[in-house]
Here is the input.
Amino acid sequence: MRYRKRLEIVADILGAVGDGAKKTKIMYFANLSYKLLEKYLNKTVDAGLVSFDNGHYEVTEKGQVFLERFSNFSSRYSRLERELEAASFEREVLERMCELVVSERNDSRV
Amino acid sequence: MRYRKRLEIVADILGAVGDGAKKTKIMYFANLSYKLLEKYLNKTVDAGLVSFDNGHYEVTEKGQVFLERFSNFSSRYSRLERELEAASFEREVLERMCELVVSERNDSRV
Here is the structure.
């Protein structure tokens, strides 16, 4: 599994909280160890992205805004990564065009 | 002056050669030292981007293709760099949304 970045973990937690959930469900759907869940779930509460009341978590309005912005950011970033890869391929083509042309051996000379 | 990359130097030389030129003109328009010009001009000739005949340089068909591809690549790359900068700003906004919300001090309690 590839390493998830901080923002992705937060977004996964918010996605798992959804319309409301308890800790076990969040841990399961966000696919996190208990230790990481504890760390990040508390962070989302402290940041006001998730509200906590009597064992029940809910995504706040700020959390919804975060999720929407993150989703936009994430797809935009993936597109940029693909475009950069294509550009890097094009750079290689150009680099190759600058390389010495090795003339084909003219066997008719033999 | 910012550092010019290899491909840019080649493109600048090809631009300076234009419809045909002698070494002094190329050096002047490509804004290169004599040493760098020697190195890169020979490269462009060896790569078949520029032809050389009796002190006179000309951009070959391959050179024209290179120039066009490089120009496309260059503007595409600049756009990607700007978009990446914007994405990195958006990432910062998202990061800040995950930070601890410091509640405003409620002076009415005093």
In short: Strands of chain B lie at 50-53, 56-59. Confidence is low (pLDDT under 50) at residues 104-110 of chain B.
